Amino acid sequence: MSDQVSRRALLSTGSRALAGGAVLVGLGSRLGAFDTATSVTLPPAHSAPGGKDWLEPGQPGTHYTPVIVPNGTTLPWTIVDGVKVYHLIAEEVRGHEFAPGLVADCWGFNGVVHGPVIEAVEGDRVRIYVTNRLPAATTVHWHGVLLPSGMDGVGGLSQKVIEPGQTFVYEWTFRQYGTLMYHSHHDEMTQMALGMTGMIVVHPRRPVGPKIDRDFALLLHEWRINPGTRRPDPNEMTDFNVLTFNARVYPGTAPLVVKRGERVRLRMGNLSAMDHHPIHIHGHHLVVTGTDGGQVPPTAYWPETSVLVPVGSARDAEFVADNPGDWALHCHMTHHVMNQMGHGLPNLIGIDTTGLDERIRRLLPGYMTMGHTGMADMGEMGMKVPPNSLPMIGAPGPKAYITMGGMFTIVKVRENLTSYEDPGWYVDPPGTLALPATSEQLSRDGIRL
Amino acid sequence: MHPRQRSPDMRLLQGCSPLVVIVALAGCGSPPRDKGFSDVASLVQERTGRTVHWHHGSADDAQVAKAVSDLLAQPLTPDSAIQVALLNNPRLHATYQELGISQADLVQAGLLSNPTLVAGVKFFSAGPVVELSLVENLLQVFALPARTRFAEAQLAQAKATVAGAIIDLIADTKRAAINVLAAEQMLELRRTVLSSLDAAAELSTRIHAAGNSTALEHAADVAAAAQARLVVADGEDAVLIARERLAIAMGLWGADATRWTMTGRLPELPLADGTEEGTGMERQAISASLDLLAMREGARALGERYGIERLDAWFGGLDVGVMGERESTGEWGFGPEVGLALPIFDQGQGRRAAASAQLELVARLYRARAVELRSQVRIARAQVWSAYARAQFLRMVLLPLRARIVKESMLHYNGMLIGPFQALEAQRQEIEAGGQYLDALHRYWLERATLEQALQGRGTASGTTGSNTLPEATSEKRHE
Questions:
Q1: Whether the predicted interface score ipTM is above 0.85
Q2: Which of B213, B408, B419 sits opposite A344 (nearest CB)?
Q3: Fewest Cβ atoms closer than 10 Å to its Cβ: which of A207, A248, B272, B407?
């Protein structure tokens, strides 16, 4: 097992090891029955009152490279007496844009949907103030976090609910690293459906495993927003019509820009109400390296082209971006890559449409039969649709219209990048682009049409 | 005037000269035949603004026939239909003859009854005895003015009746024309609904032919269109019946009865509902009422009758005359003759009491009718308001909402959020709402015609149409 241990990191944490002569534990995990992997040995939990069970607050650059949140933000923190202090404000977020043309009034944190990513380092003591500016009581549960029972955030069980106007304070020491999540745990059906979710990224105190060059956090979610309305319907159980990466739908999802040869990690959390999502990548293969339950031993890395992220789980999947180009990254459920379609339509595939339009236009001016050859033309037809809606809209692509929406984004792998801004569309080297067959090719290869 | 005889009979005749003068004056001429109708025409003119004529003689008839066929050659309007009806309705023209009858009665009332001449011969051996007597009932001479006034009153009643029949025909024809317009518009609406269901059925057939739907789904869609065909057939029946009713009002015969057309639509709701005069309407209805006019004339006639009865009781049997006799000797003797019924037993108490009771009855009936009339006007006015408000609400609130539903449905259809069947359904519901508006508009114009009829002096017993010129027309119920 090759591992890269930063000498500086080793020394710095080592010098701060607490009394007891902590031994720096190597990599990999010693997965006992109830242990989770740690990159260092932490001070025992529940030490004597007044005693510290945490390490010095981890710093970006020193301990970690900050995670990249496409279309999102990270929650800022301050240090007070060696404790990382965060402030989450649960509030209504009006006018959240899913993509240009679809805007809704949701619930979120700190003015954004989803809430900002909470970033910390294994061994950090964190103190999170949660102010409730919602019209309803709420709590925050820290999904996958090992902490004292009273901090767990289950309304009524762990704590009294946070009434509107109140501010509660949560505090614990991170005794793990990995991709975790946070979400409301009071009236979850309503509050999560309106957007009260976010991710937590806890970096190891010491580097573990191959160096990750580009570390992305994507929170998967599903919504029901009836076209023409501007509020998600939390009562929907089965027929979701807006599927999001970080609360955005294509063409509103920001591309993941990567230099050729970089090692990329995708941290994918799924807080959808009812649907698992198989997230599929093109041009590369993924290996699953971790979950919200901990780290997968390298010998157990499982290869996939689509990583299934169940409801209430997170998956870390890594790949090396060795294939330049524009690569689709999307949920492979076909209905999850469409925006707001209707499901009560009659099946018109293959019908004879001769004379139908003229006949019906006498009753409904502007009528046009649609759907008899599928739905691909919808996006380019430019017909008048209900305001604030994106029925089956995609976006123009470099070669033609891309008829995708929902949980769809693009990984852009480029040879030479000077910055990680959107580099535009990939230019295919000659001989690597599928084109209509010429008659020479057809005759040379004996293809008869 | 000189007696022609030059004999001792001249004395007879000179004695009779006052009698002769009376005879001469009483029997002189007759009122012009059409004088009564011009009164009728002015009664109608004051109340409706329309002029009517009574045509007689073949020259007039030919003119009327030409006028009618000219009107029928063009598509009719409610107004031109009324013109045809006034020229051509046979029942109405039959009614005009009542005037002739009453006028003849007037003439008759002005005539003295003929004197009676009795002559007898008795043959005696000495020679024949001749008895002559010429007697005239004198009561009816004194009663002549009263009898004349009685007949005039009855003529005035007849005029009121005829004027009433004319106004009724105008209103009935107007209502019949409105019903034709409404029935035709409603049929058009039902045809549009059918074409929408037909289009949906056609689409369903194509979907089924492509293997995309079940036979059950397909059958349901086709059945809906089939059902609508029945509704259209009902609408066609309604048009036929409405047209026939108008044809009857216009008195059309043979090919004319079915060849005419009426195009155009029910007039739109006016800006004001037509009941602006408020309580002035009740006053107008009372003063224009032909029923009350007829009753007043009837009371006048009764009054004259009462006078005649009184006169009759005292002077019923007053005969005056001349008698002459030729003796067998050849000598003639002449002298006056008077006969007098002595009112000893019968002073006409019964007849006078009856006449007086009748007068009282008529007075009470008059008041009862006036009370009814005012109520009818109030009902008619309220019906007009209510129909107007309903039509107004449908036009300004409900129809725009349905239009908006269609517009929004098309936005959803364009986004493939609903299918074509739902879009067509939304449009059908807009048409149905249009049908409701049409019904309300139809009712408004009918109620308005009834109110106008009441203000023109022909308030009817139950606030609905009632006349003997047309069978009753009601607005058809819409079938679903």
A1: no
A2: B419
A3: B272
Q: Do A341 and B421 touch (CB under 8 A)?
A: no
Q: Which of A305, A243, A239 is nearest to A271 (CA)?
A: A243
Residue of A nearest to B195 (CA): A363
CA-to-CA separations, A256 to A71, A260, A288, A327, B146, in angstroms, rounded: 10, 12, 19, 9, 119
Closest partner CB to A342 (pick from B207, B408, B416): B416
| Location of structure tokens 């109830």 | A34
Pairing mode, if any, of strands A263-270 and A214-223? parallel
Q: How far is the alpha carbon of B424 from chain A, nearest alpha carbon, in Å? A: 7
Contact A362 B424 (CB under 8 A): no
Least CA distance to A348: which residue of chain B? B207
DSSP secondary structure letters along B189-229: HHHHHHHHHHHHHHHHHHHHHTT-S-HHHHHHHHHHHHHHH
Query: With an 8 Å Cβ cutoff, is A342 touching chain B?
Result: yes
* Tens-level pLDDT at each residue, chain A (449 residues): 344 444 444 444 444 443 333 333 333 344 443 456 788 888 777 655 667 889 999 999 999 999 999 999 999 999 999 999 999 999 999 999 999 999 999 999 999 999 999 999 999 999 999 999 999 999 999 999 999 999 999 999 999 999 999 999 999 999 999 999 999 999 999 999 999 999 999 999 999 989 999 999 999 999 999 999 999 999 999 999 999 999 999 999 999 999 999 999 999 999 999 999 999 999 999 999 999 999 999 999 989 999 999 999 999 999 999 999 999 999 999 999 999 888 888 999 999 999 999 999 999 998 999 888 887 777 777 788 899 999 777 899 999 999 999 999 999 999 999 999 999 999 999 999 999 999 999 999 999 99
Q: Name A250's bridge partners.
A: A406
Q: Which residues of B touch A241 (CB under 8 A)?
A: none
Please check whether residue B177 touches A, CB under 8 A. Answer: no
**Closest by alpha carbon to A105, among A193, A180, A171, A213?**
A193
For B217, nearest residue in chain A (alpha carbons): A346
Q: Which residues of A touch B434 (CB under 8 A)?
A: none
Cβ–Cβ below 8 Å for A352 and B209: yes
